[in-house]
Amino acid sequence: MREKPLDQLAGLQGDDPTRVTGVFIKNLTGLRSYLAGFLSTPQDVEDVLQDTYIRALESEKLQPIRSPKAYLYRICKNLALNHRQKASERLNSYIEDLEDVSFHVGGRSLDEQVENELQFSHFCRAAKSLPPQCRKVFVLKKVYGFSNKEISERLGIAVSTVDKHLAKGLIACRDYLKRKGYRFLSAPLASRD
Predict the structure, then answer these.
(1) CB-based burial of residue 72 (10 Å sphere; 0-12 exposed, 13-18 middle, 19+ buried)?
(2) Residue 23, phi-psi category: left (phi > 0), alpha (psi -120 to 50), beta (remainder)
(3) N or C end of the chain: which has fewer CB within 10 A?
């Protein structure tokens, strides 16, 4: 097991005249356990322990500490509570940011996205129900983006036949979606390119 940085202080106990250092070293294991009750990660515990030791040393330089052990535990508790409060604020801020991002991706709410995906699924079923030649024309136009002329050449049919298949496909898909409860604005059925 790797030695923690504060464990290296144990060698200073005899050399350091301050009472805080000696009491800190003697109670290091207890302080760690105490902090583990407040903090979630070993790294947080070590960070707060280091801050506790530094603050206690700074205080001892200003005036003698009557009860170093109680003082160390009080500093630990206050720093741990502050650390937890800051972590909670960061989490709340993150959740608020996440709320804005995750539920309004691309300017649409999650409900709108789900509804659009459901509508698209119904649209795919509607296209699948078209007669084979009509479905080929429709998919080449709407999925692959071919022009009416390209579809005509590819399938060996007249451009006017492509137009008829597209109109038939759009009407069939619109009617299918209407039966599923979707409403549409009136728009041209097909464009010739």
Answers:
(1) buried
(2) alpha
(3) N
DSSP states of 50-118: HHHHHHHHHHHHHS--S-HHHHHHHHHHHHHHHHHHHHHHHHHHHHHHHHHHHTSGGG--HHHHHHHHH
Could you report the per-residue pLDDT of 3-59, keeping only the tens digit for each? 555 555 554 444 444 589 999 999 999 999 999 988 888 999 999 999 999 999 999
Same domain, 148 and 97: no
Here the CATH number for the domain that contains residue 13 is 1.10.1740.10
What is the token pair recorded at 105? 């991706």
Residue 183's pLDDT band (boundaries 50, 70, 90)?
confident
Place of tokens 């508790």: 77
Q: What is the CA radius of gyration of the chain?
A: 36
* 72 within 8 A of 20, measured Cβ to Cβ: yes
9, 13, 12, 19: which is closest to 61 by C-alpha?
19
Using one digit for the tens of pLDDT, what is the confidence trace for 97-137? 555 554 555 566 777 888 878 888 888 888 888 999 999 99
In a domain, 185, yes or no: no
Q: Which residues of 86-98 are buried (b: 16+ CB within 10 A; e: fewer)?
A: eeeeeeeeeeeee
